[in-house]
Amino acid sequence: MNASPDQNGALLQARNVTRRFGELVAVNDVSFDVLKGEIFGIAGPNGSGKSTLFNILTGIPFGPSAGRIIFMGEEIQRLPAYRISQAGLVRTFQKDAEFPTMTARENVVCGAVYCGGLRRDAAQAAADDALDAVGFDKRRQSLPAMDLSVYERKQLMIASAVAGSPAMLLLDEPAAGLTKPEIKELGDLVLSIRDRGVTIVLIEHVLTLLLKVSERLMVLNQGAVLAHGDPHEVVRDQRVVEAYLGKRELVL
Q1: Whether the Cβ atoms of residue 221 and residue 45 lie closer than 8 Å to each other
Q2: Residue 29 lies in a domain
C-alpha cells in the first residue's frame, strides 16, 4: 500500500460514510479528513455513533453500508479487518480485549503478529519496544485480568496496538475508569505516541483530555457531524452544549 498521505496531507479520508442496521442509521453521511501527524479528537453524547464510526473505519466487526474510506491513498472499505490493520490502521476498544490466560507480554506479541504481520522473533522485539513506549516496565509475565490495575490494562491494550507499528492509531475512550492523575498520565502517553510518528484519532468523553491533546475536534450527534474545528471553539458551540447538557452551560 502507498505509505504516504494525499497531496493535502490527509492520511485518512472518510467520504459520505454511512452505517445502517435495518431502519436505524447509526452513522449518517459522515465526511472528514485526518492529517498525517495530528491528534484528531472525536466527541459526542452516548449513542451518537462514535464507536460505530471506529468499527466501520477498521472493519471490526463490520464495514460501512455506503461511502468511501481512503487510507494512505487507497480505498480500504472492502478490505478484511486484518488487511486494514496490517496496512497501518489499528484500533483499541472501550472494553478490555486481552487474552486472559496469556501473560501481558504474550498479549502484546499477539498484537504485533496480527496488526503488524510480524513473525516470532520480530514480534517479540516489537512487543518489548511497545511495552517500553507505553511505560509498562513491570509485571510483563502477569495475567492481565488477575494482576493488573485498570490503568495497566489500558497501557497493555495500547501497547498491543503500537506493537504493530501503525501509521494511525484509533483510541476508543481510553480514559474510561481512570482517576484524574491517571488521565493526566494517559494524556502524556498519547502525546508521546504521537511524537513517535503515529497519527492518532481519539474518541473520548473526558473533555479535559480532548482539549489537552487534540489539534482538531469533531462532535457527532445522532450519527451525523454536529461541529468540527478548533477544540476550544467547538466545545463552546451552542449546538454542542445543548447536545450534551440541554440548555445548561458547559463547564470545563
Answers
A1: yes
A2: no
